[in-house]
Amino acid sequence: MAAPPSSPPPQQPPPFYELVKGPCGLDKVVLRGARKRSVEVYLYGGQVTSWKNDHGEELLFVSSKAIFKPPKAIRGGVPICFPQFGTHGNLEQHGFARNRLWIIDDNPPPLPLNPAIKAFVDLILKPSDEDLKIWPHSFEFRLRVALGPTGDLSLTSRIRNTNTDGRPFSYTFAYHTYFSVSDISEVRVEGLETMDYLDNLKGKERFTEQGDAIVFESEVDKIYLSAPSKIAIIDHEKKRTFVLTKEGLPDAVVWNPWDKKAKAMQDFGDVEYKHMLCVEPAAVEKPITLKPGEEWKGRLALSAVPSSYCSGQLDPLKVIHG
Ligand SMILES: O=P(O)(O)OC[C@H]1O[C@H](O)[C@H](O)[C@@H](O)[C@@H]1O
User: How is domain 19-321 classified at the CATH fold level?
Assistant: First the structure.
């Protein structure tokens, strides 16, 4: 008997976003792309906590001890540091945006988007009366998180001064990105060599980076100034390169707490420092100033590509300039 005609292959469901509950009942948005690609964003902090490639492998680091409970910021992913980076001001470390509840913005002002991007979400944060007491400025902070057609993750921030009293405001900012790496001693960062930096471990003193590329053998906490728009993080063991592209964010912070600081952090495993690296596009040295009605835009785009070399044979120009 003749076999029944084969039915057409099932259509792949279109990418979409869904709202689900995470730990402690916190809402999170899940963006799905082709194959096993996905991105997760908590409304708490407007914080991306997961970015998976087409094999479903996690590309961002989140601590196994992360606390998903306000007022503690989630340890990992991409915390948003605003309106202050670090201790560069009088506010709490890294400002308050990372421990506030953002909401989904269903009707954001137009923002050009690659038409191939089907999975994205817009969030918004406005100050509460309590926030206005500690930082007396009215603002609208819009964040678009998008999963691109090739699995790229992009975050676009638009911050608008909505003060009605005519006053400008200034802020510092960072996308405090935690990358997942196989072994920190097998990682190098390219694009920051020869840059000037402020060393947070030496009282923010200014130095110039030496050598070919940045490698890691001990604690590091540096703010590279006027860093290039592309930075590569090369994971030799995984044979994977993260390419980070930044716009509107002149600086780049590089942080790994290493063993002693790791042990001192309540929400971070003792040896997890081996499996993470923060490279954070930022505006720290020169705060951004907005007059009423003005808007600033700062963008981060991340892609993860196979490293086309065995060890140390990478042509930095290929990674940095595509
Ligand atoms: O523990 P957090 O407040 O999240 O800060 C974690 C780290 O963030 C940045 O990378 C700073 O440069 C570091 O000085 C700080 O230790």
Answer: Beta-galactosidase; Chain A, domain 5 (2.70.98)
Expressed in angstroms and rounded, the spacing between residue 202 Cα and the centre of ligand 1 is 15
Quick check: ipTM above 0.95?
yes
pLDDT at 63: 98
Number of alpha carbons in the 13 Å side-chain half-sphere of residue 196: 7
- The C-alpha angle 50, 262, 226, rounded to 5 degrees, equals 65
Atom 15 of ligand 1: nearest residue by CA position? 86
Ligand 1 neighbours by CB, cut-off 6 Å = 86, 93-94, 176, 200, 221, 253, 255, 278
Q: Which residues are catalytic?
A: 176, 280
Task: Enumerate the domain spans of the chain.
Answer: 19-321
Establish whether the linkage from the previous residue to 8 is cis, with ω within 30° of 0. Answer: no
At residue 95, the 3 state secondary structure works out as coil
| Residue partners of 227: CB distance under 8 A and separation at least 6 | 191, 192, 195, 246, 250, 251, 252
Nearest C-alpha to atom 13 of ligand 1 is from which residue? 221
Q: Above 80 in pLDDT, residue 266?
A: yes
Predicted pLDDT at 202: 98
Structure tokens at 14: 């279109």
Atom of ligand 1 nearest to the CA of 98: 4
Q: Which residues are bridge partners to 60 per DSSP?
A: 179
Q: Is residue 45 left, alpha or beta, with left meaning phi > 0 and alpha meaning psi from -120 to 50?
A: left
Residue 314 pLDDT greater than 60, yes or no:
no
Indicate left, alpha or beta for 89 from its phi (over 0: left) and psi (-120 to 50: alpha): left
Residue 72 burial (C-beta neighbours within 10 Å; 0-12, 13-18, 19+): middle
Distance from the alpha carbon of residue 22 to the mean position of ligand 1, in angstroms: 24
